[in-house]
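Quick log. Single chain, no ligands specified.
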Amino acid sequence: MKLKYLILFFIMFAAGATQAQVRFEAKVSREKLGINERLRVDFEMNQDGDNFDPPSFDGFTVVGGPNQKVSRSYYNGKSEYSKTYSFYLEPKSRGRVTIGQAEIIIDEKLYKTSPIVVDVGAAVDQPTDGDNTDLIAEGNLHLVAEVSKANPYLNEAITVVYKLYVSPEVSVSNWREMDSPKYSDFWSQNIDIKQLRVENGQYRGEPYRFVVLRKTILYPQKTGELNIEPLTLSIAVDVPSQRRDIFGSRIFKTVNKTVAANNKTINVKPLPDGKPAGFTGAVGDFSFSVTTNKKQLNAGESLEAKVEIRGNGNLQLFDIPELSVPSSLEIYDPERRENVSTNLNGMQGSISQNYTIVPTQKGKYPIPALSFSFFDPETQTYKTRSSKEILINVDSGPLAGNEPSGTFNSNKQAVANNLNQFKYIKLNTNLRPIEGGDFLGSAAFWGGLLLPLLAIPMFIFFGKKRDKRAGDVQGQRLRKADKLARKYLSEAKRNLGDQKEFYLALERSMHNYLKAKLGIQTSEMSKDRIQTILNEKGVDETTIADFLTVLKSCELARYTPTSSVAMQQDYDKAASVISTLDKQL
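-> predicted structure:
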């Protein structure tokens, strides 16, 4: 019987001892910090005490505290008590600094915390204020930019993927972009992400959740070291605080945190020497073909010839070889067609120029073979693709030369005579003399006689001008590009309301205008290069700034929605700046 009471007494004593176990400990917001940062120290106990005595904080300056916080909670019928003294400290020097022991008396018994060693390092760029919730948010939230290739060739596609890593200790309720990268030295295009998807992964060996916020394809337009600007976000982070609700659950505090992706630097290599003739800056892997929808037709009929480039690479950043035909075939300005999509592998699809050709004389006419050269970054070599010669057979129509006199056609048929076929001609006329004098010797007579003689020098003059114009090959190319620029500008006007097509056409018109006036290729169309050339040509700064503003609007419209009013304003500005540039150049 005594043994049973002893066991019961022992159990009650153990339960009371366990319930009465005192906890008094020190916690720091971080164990490593910069000399220009602040540190928060919490001394926490689970029972109320007296005569709290903090350490001397040698090596630190106390800039805040002590702040006292008391919380009580009830969970499953049990009460929990917490009391915390908080201090904010500023380090005085670099090195390893020890925070000494704090003391308190609880139930007439002295309790001490364990010493804590803190490493104070060099000053940091963005010091924190030591607030615990800010520190938690900072340590559990990371925006990372992942670049697919750090050493690309000029005009080779690279991918930048922005990922937001979030620790399980916090949660993100909202976010917005504060500053978007400009990509001034790149041709860029964002890849649409229809729906954000949360995935599980690791960040520096720790389990994290992450979401891909943006994917961007970049084509570097300059060689050397290029900087990829960071993406900056403002994020609302739900961080657990030290307080609890009446059910014992932690109360979360929402902290607005600004995070930026790390700066990335890539080294762009120039294309190797040995560029083939006719190389216009194509980088990737392509196929090349020249096709016609007809090879046999009559004079006066039309056929369509298509010069097409298909594959994966910088499809919108180089020129398509121009088709040339014999003089007996009339050829019209080509229509450019693009069927290009962009994914993480870069631009894929096809671009083509479609020519309308009309033969004027009977005969057989060859469309000469064309060649297209590109640089393949996978094999690091230049490659050339060639088309085959196409023979066009024009069956009927006027001959290109004199027909042989001995030509005989055994299929001739006799023509039936019709005696009534000329009955519509009147044989009896009623003519009367003209009143007003004789025509011979009149002003009209001498005018009709001398006018052809006076027109001969004019024909000679305009003939020389025409021959000079025909012999100016460079001028013909510039005039053709100028017409193409006006054509694309009119195409942009037709696409007002369709954001994607409008800004693509507007950007092409601006580039083709520069090609027409300055003779520079598409591969040289970086903003810095354009600004340098226009400065050398004596164009004023305001006009250059307006021109670059239109180009920036075209780039920004790839990933930012815009309104019809803004599109109309960009179109008017483009027309105005081209007119102003034309006068100054």
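The domain at 474-584 is CATH 1.20.120.330 (Four Helix Bundle (Hemerythrin (Met), subunit A)).
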